[in-house]
Every structure is written in structure tokens, then in C-alpha cells.
Amino acid sequence: MTNPLPPTETFAHRYPNGAKMAQAFAAVNRPSQREDIGDDDITYSDVHRQLMLILNFVASILGVAATLWIVARWWSTPARLFLTMGGSFLVGVAEVAVYSGYVWHLGQAKKKDKTLKEVKKIVQTWTVSPEDEAEDEPEPLAAGGKLGTRDTTLRRRRKDEQ
What we know:
This protein is an all-alpha fold. About 55% of the residues lie in helices and about 0% in strands.
């Protein structure tokens, strides 16, 4: 009358060659060159920078479009649309121009950095010694305002005084 439950199966029962397939997948997808290993942080930071740049462009363009659409609310719809599209296009062109100027400036700075060689030179040196330290340090004062003496010996508790 009732159907019996199907037998429980595990991953190994369903895919008997699963471990071999995983090893084959890992072998096929490992980096082809040794230099490619370990640069994930650099890749992620580059991707993050590019995504933030695209998001900035889109936010600027949409912000200008919405502002122009609201400002020109008494105009006819075709005129508002033309104004909004034209303003957004100009902002997009301006964003690309500013970014390309920034990239050009970075390229020039890298070229300039390569031509300048850093020369390390010792300008001033000094030594610190215990004799110099004792001359500059004032004498310690006791709680009553009397001059104290320096006690350089360490005091330890004796076992029989406890």
C-alpha cells in the first residue's frame, strides 16, 4: 500500500570516480606558469579598483541625468529627454577624459621614477651610551622633597622572612 523509502546513497555511491575527477580538475586548472601562483591579492585589488571606477562613472551619469530631468520638468518630454541624454553623454565623456588623463599622468610618473636613481647617504649619526644618559638625567627626589639616592641593587625576599 505504501511505497518503501528509496535506499540512502552517499556521494561515493553516486559518483564512484569522484575523487579521481576532483584531482583531474585540479590538475587541469592549476596555473601554467610558476609566476602566476600567489598573485590573487593583486588581481582582486585590480578588479575591485575597476569595479569601483565603473560604479563611480555610472553614479555620476545617473545623478546628472536625474538632476537634469527634474530641473527641466516644465519642458516638453522630447526636450527633457534630449537634455538628459545630452547631459549624461557629456558627463560620460568628461569622466573618460579625466580618467585617461589620470592614467597618462601615472605613466609619466613611472617613467620619471625609473630615470631617477635613489642614492642613500648617511647625513648624521649619534651614539647612545650609559655615560651620556647619566649626565642629562636629574637626580631622583624622595616623597618629602629630599634628594634621594640611586639604589641599583635589587632586593629579593628571603624564604625565611615570609
